[in-house]
């Protein structure tokens, strides 16, 4: 029954990568806590770089400096 | 003052259906806990089927099998 | 597969009332969007009144004024 | 290490305004709790007015009445 | 910079198991999306079984039937 | 109508500090986006240091090293 929410910036994660995140997070709950994978829900949120901040500035600004 | 967040897959819910979810969730808090509807907030997130997983696989894959 | 999160202040909701919220929210998704209740998850968070604010002040302060 | 999530309706907030929210929320955690800004994360969600409800009705309906 | 939130029922997960969830979720983001582990945040919420519902009933009720 | 969720580790924030976070976050939304403070909701979650991870390890472990 676990619920996992993964938030990442929207920077080109492919459907295959997102499927891997879902598979991996589900397996993690099975391995560590013996949870039932059939009722484990994983939701991925992809967030615009303008809408994500670290250190008081947006990821958009950070990426420009990199 | 309650806050309700409803996450569903993005598969064509209409504005009317979403308005019904908002109305119904607000009424539920009034009926069960006598909450003030005027300060009850409901937020609906519609999530791409590639970004939602159950049983370790995406809803996109599940829908193809159905 | 929907996921519903209900946040309320911790002010004495009983197990019966919380069971009613879970039943009602699940039924709402069935009625409005024909979702499968068996994979509908509802999580209730009860938040201390010191940790919830509206209008820039805590619910603790608001309750004292009422 | 704090994590701040700000949910607003999608009604034209500019990148500059969102950068200000990120800067201001980060500074708030520094000022009040002496948190390290470099590990403070702020995520802004912009929600369609059809998907946000108060008082049992959508913001879309409320805006039309205003 | 990813943020992962894992919600599980409060049913005796040990500090070691929770540390494993944190380690595993962080590594998953490194492996799949090459994210920087030093800015990857994982938050685990443990939810009372009275406050978690599936299929319209609480986990407390489900556990009694098992 | 904005909704702000602030997650911090549970390490002794006082009611006064939490009231300041609520006041400050509400004022931020007023200043930047001209939002109505009376319908701005702020919820603070205090998370055990065993349940919060950065860099793949818990805050409990990090604090012991500091």
TrEMBL record, chains A, B, C, D, E, F:
Keywords: Isomerase. The active site is at 2 (proton acceptor). It comes from the Bacteria. Its EC number is 5.3.2.-. Residues 2-61 form the 4-oxalocrotonate tautomerase-like domain. Pfam families: Tautomerase. One of its GO terms (molecular function) is isomerase activity. InterPro entries: 4-OT, 4-OT-like_dom, Tautomerase/MIF_sf. Belongs to the 4-oxalocrotonate tautomerase family. PANTHER family: 2-HYDROXYMUCONATE TAUTOMERASE (PTHR35530:SF1), TAUTOMERASE-RELATED (PTHR35530). NCBIfam families: taut. This is Tautomerase. It comes from Ectothiorhodospira marina.
């Amino acid at each position: 029954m676990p619920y996992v929410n993964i938030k990442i910036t929207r920077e080109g994660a492919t459907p295959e990568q997102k499927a891997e995140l879902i598979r991996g997070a589900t397996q993690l709950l099975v391995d560590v806590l013996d949870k039932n994978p059939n009722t484990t829900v994983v939701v991925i949120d992809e967030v615009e770089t303008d809408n994500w901040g670290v250190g008081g500035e947006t990821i958009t600004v950070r990426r420009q400096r990199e």
